[in-house]
Amino acid sequence: MLNQALVQDVIHEALTTGGDFAEVFVEDTFKDNLLLQGGRIDKSLSGRDFGVGIRVYNGFHSAYTYTTDFSREGLLKTARQAAQAINGNAQVNGQPFQHEQAPVIHEINQLPQSVEKARKVNVMKNAADIAGHYHNSISQVRVNLLDEEQNVLIANSDGKFVEDKRVHSRMSIAAIASNEHDMETGFYGPGAVQGFEFFENLDLNHYAKEAARIAVTNLGADPCPSGKFPVIIDNEFGGVIFHEACGHGLEATSVAKGKSAFANKVGEQVAPDIVTYIDDGTIPNEWGSINVDDEGNKPQKNVLIENGILKGYLVDQLNGRIMDTEPTGSGRRESYRYAPTSRMTNTYIAPGESTPEEIIANTEHGIYARYMGGGSVNPATGDYNFAINEAYLVKNGKIDKPVRGATLIGNGPKTLQTVDMVGNNLGHGAGMCGSLSGSIPVNVGQPTLRVSEITVGGRKEDA
Q1: Residue 68, number of CB atoms within 10 A of its CB
Q2: Which residues contact 36 (CB under 8 A, 6 or more apart)?
Q3: d(CA 140, CA 132)
Q4: Rg, the chain, Cα only
Q5: Is 9 helix (H, G, I), strand (E, B) or coil?
């Protein structure tokens, strides 16, 4: 991508004002983004993005610049711009590079750029046909196909020189059901660290029908009652509530600044002993997995909470300096336009011993959240607000009628403490996570679990 001698010169230039560490991140990305709507391709965006980011540290301070000019003059100029923001006394010239290719944890069989668009469109049409024929109330289907090949080089003044290839593939299916009075949308968006083989092996019948079924179910649902209820949250993407309300609070990005509800609580009981919370970037081919992070460090299985005890945080290099903690392979960024910071990969609650049937049967009265939607959270306090895409009432230990318009309102650390049953059916769901270093692929996951009480927003009436 760039030769070692040039990269070494760029790092040397970045250190000329007394910085004690410099890093170069080179990216060359190919991307396809197709949208099928009304049975035909409505949008087709293909592109290549090449750029270089340069970062310099001086103690706990850092400066970051980037450029799309990869000439020698352009790179040295960008390095000087970063250096000018640093005023230090370090005498660092940079260690000799130790070249390494990132280990291939995730097997890729068909690179996206080698596949004709006609094959991709055929898969999209098949998904649209399945969803469209699910029920006569389905009025529209949108299918989005995204694939990306990102080639990176990460080099720094400590001698690291790592090259990596990342491949992501994802399909999003949105089905709209409508009648004379209402319109509802169902959504499913599976993804993986795989090539085109992901789409060829995808169970379109399952995902397309589920998207349509959610829409049809919500079309005939009553408004959700409001109040405080026990809430059963199903597996897979149900984990988004803990990703947002707890996971972000365990990232060093907020912990190092003391702006996290979990700061300075390592060793404390922060959840019941049935809760173990893990971030693992090494799971083969999962959507949030990585070969190396965006600082060139190997990913690892980070047990954040074990049997209710807070064990540690997700740490990047800069915040690791502040916290006097080693990085955990958690430095991530969307692209060369962003400096990396601590981010999640595949984050999930480990399976427990209860079956989903037992959890439902032991709930006399409450809400069953089958599919979660989007939401917002304040990492400093853990306060959150989430939509439920598909919800049901629970009465006398059984799933009752569907309800719509449900939201969950609460506080992440408090919700974590009120988990009282954890199922044995761990599942993962693909999503995109936005934060200081941009939008990145992450998996959220959990088994079916029950929270003893959450405030549910909806219409005020008895459930």
Answers
A1: 12
A2: 42, 121, 124, 125, 128, 142, 143, 144, 145
A3: 7
A4: 24
A5: helix
CATH topology of domain 4-220: PmbA/TldD fold (3.30.2290)
- In single-letter form, the type of residue at position 41 comes to I
Using CA atoms, how far residue 211 sits from 33, 121, 130, 233, 387, in Å, is: 20, 19, 10, 18, 16
**SS3 (DSSP) at 131:** helix
Domain-by-domain residue ranges, the chain? Answer: 4-220, 223-460
Q: Which of the 8 DSSP states describes residue 247? A: I
Say how many CA atoms lie within 13 Å of 66 toward its Cβ.
15
Tokens 């310099």 correspond to 56
> Strands 98-101 and 160-178, how do they pair?
parallel
232-241 pLDDT per residue, tens: 999 999 999 9
**Per residue in 343-399, pLDDT tens?**
999 999 999 999 999 999 999 999 999 999 988 888 788 899 999 999 999 999 999
Longest dimension (CA), the chain: 73
Q: What is the DSSP letter of 297?
A: P
